[in-house]
Amino acid sequence: MFIKIKNICLLAIFSLIILFPLFAQDDTGLKEDAEGKTVIKTVSGLKFEVPEDRPIEERNNIIAPMPLDEYVALKFSKFESRLQKIEENINQIQDQLNIIQGELNSPKAKENPSQKP
Question: Is residue 113 part of a domain?
Fold first, then answer.
């Protein structure tokens, strides 16, 4: 019994030694953001790897990408605008469907089923 436990422990230790490098890799090699594209922007000889739409700014004589909190707020603002436009389009389509449904349910449409509205 003791030998089996010892063998299981050794197997577990060797497995950890072999698998650890696979899980401990640094993500700095990844070149994708949430949308999958980053670019290298050069400003005043400084190179920044940032998402395509993240501006590089100069503040207090320091050139750097837009602060993350501002960038995220900008992204949410753009997303909110897109979402509002989509909701408006859905509402317009829903109104059109209601009109069509009303025409199909009208007594005139029921009297002449062979005619298309």
Answer: yes
Question: How far apart (Å, rounded) are the C-alpha atoms in residues 61 and 112?
Answer: 77
Phi-psi region of 36 (alpha: psi -120 to 50; beta: other; left: phi over 0): left
pLDDT surpasses 80 at 68: yes
Residues with Cβ within 8 Å of 37's Cβ and at least 6 positions away in sequence, in order, are: 51, 52
* Cα 72-90-102 angle, rounded to 5 deg: 165
Amino acid at 27: D
Q: Is the pLDDT of residue 29 over 50?
A: no
Range of the domain at 87: 67-117
Q: Is the pTM of this model over 0.90?
A: no
- Residue 110: what pLDDT? 65
SS3 25: coil
Domain contains 96: yes
- 2-16, 24-38, 49-63, 100-114: least confidently modelled range: 24-38
Could you give phi then psi for residue 107, rounded to 5 degrees? -60, -35
